[in-house]
Amino acid sequence: MFAAQPTPAAPPAADALRVQRAEIVDRKGFEKPMVAATLMVPAGWKHSGEVQWNIGRRCGRPYGMALQAAAPEGGEAITLDPSEAWGATNYGSPLGDCPQAGFRDAREYLASWIARHRRNARLVEYKPRPDKSKELAQNQWAGGSLRSWVDSGEALIAWTGDGREFHERLATAVVFSHSRLAGLNGQVLESLQGEALGVLSWRSASRPVSQRHFELMWATLKTAPEWQARIAAAERQMAADNAATQAQISRMQAESSRETLAHIQRRGEIRNEAMQQTERMRNESWQSGQATQDRMHRDTVRTIREVQGYRDPRSGGVVELPQYYDHAWQLRDGTYVLTDDPNFDPARDIGMAGERLQRTRE
Q1: SS3 (DSSP) at 287
Q2: Which pLDDT does position 306 carry in this prediction?
Q3: Are strands 46-53 and 76-81 parallel, antiparallel or unpaired?
Q4: The domain containing residue 113 runs over which residues?
Q5: How far apart are CA 40 and CA 271, in angstroms?
Q6: Distances (CA, A) of 74 to 77, 78, 285, 323
Q7: Which of 63, 148, 164, 306 minimizes the number of CB atoms within 10 Å of its CB?
Q8: Residue 306 domain-assigned?
Q9: Close Cβ partners of 11 (under 8 Å, ≥ 6 residues apart)
Q10: Worst-scoring range by mean pLDDT, 147-151, 205-209, 212-216, 291-295?
């Protein structure tokens, strides 16, 4: 399934998994292109990935990651769809440009996504994935009137396209933010915003992709630290600009309508309080991430993401690969092979020289 199947004369390589790194590149967000994220996909597949920007968007992140990878014969494909946000309130006003929706968990969101993007699909199985929420949940914030949390889930669906039946595994993680503020006359103003951090899928004709292979692929989806640092700095600046703009609007409204001054001031306070708490949550998340870049944190995160660091003999750096296999090799063409076979020999088994990778805790 993952390409480069061994010849009949070399059964020891039957468990070998051969993959290559696919990059998601941000070509428009900064002064020069930057790698935003990476994902391991089967070797030999064509792939492309980009960061899509929507600067005027006032709902969730103004950017989203997209990736497509496809097998040469067209029977399999991996995709990552961009993030999507929504919101709902109990006081009628919309949350920015957010579409009105009340999804309460990852399952409800995935059901909506499937209905919109796979119209004739039937749900075969759904399961919550709290294990995938752990790393993201480390950076969520709760306190006062604002609370945030993460819910993750995975679905298996079946659908028909181009005269063939496909099975597809889909997964997402959704970040929820709930705000509860005191309004006028004792009214409690509540809002709920959700943002799905993309939908990752792997479809295959005739039979489902194995759970093990899907797990391996999901575990290697990783945001590039340098790009994430630039994004965090930009988000802090945008939040500050938005707060200044809103303060000016509030002043203009107060000057033009004295009789509603109390209402305007209270609305401004409510809005600014929510923005300040959201900004504080983002800042604390970023500072926490910066403060925990030591070995213990890397080990913990890798355990959660179910990956293992290996020394890359070409670059001298570290490459993260799924930890489900006992041995890892880098082949001459730059692709990687994962195997449980201690006697695996790439030159003998798949006809290409390679070097065994050494594990590292860096």
Answers
A1: helix
A2: 66
A3: unpaired
A4: 11-223
A5: 42
A6: 7, 11, 41, 28
A7: 164
A8: no
A9: none
A10: 291-295
Distance from CA of residue 317 to its chain's centroid?
Answer: 24
Evaluate whether 156 touches 208 at the Cβ level (below 8 Å).
Answer: yes
**267: its two tokens:** 């609305």
User: In this structure, are 211 and 254 located in the same domain?
Assistant: no
DSSP 163-231: TEEEEEEEEEEEEEEEEEEE-GGGPEEEEEEEEEEEEEEEEEESSPPPHHHHHHHHHT-EE-HHHHHHH
pLDDT at 338: 87
302 within 8 A of 308, measured Cβ to Cβ: yes
Residues 191 and 265 in one domain: no
- Read off the pLDDT of each residue in 261-280 and give the average, rounded to a whole number: 57
Asked whether residue 309 is assigned to any structural domain, the reply reads: no
- pTM (2 decimals)? 0.73
| Bigger pLDDT: 342 vs 316 | 342
- Cα–Cα distance for residue pair 65/188, rounded to 1 Å: 36
CB 165 within 8 A of CB 158: yes
Mean model confidence pLDDT for the chain: 81
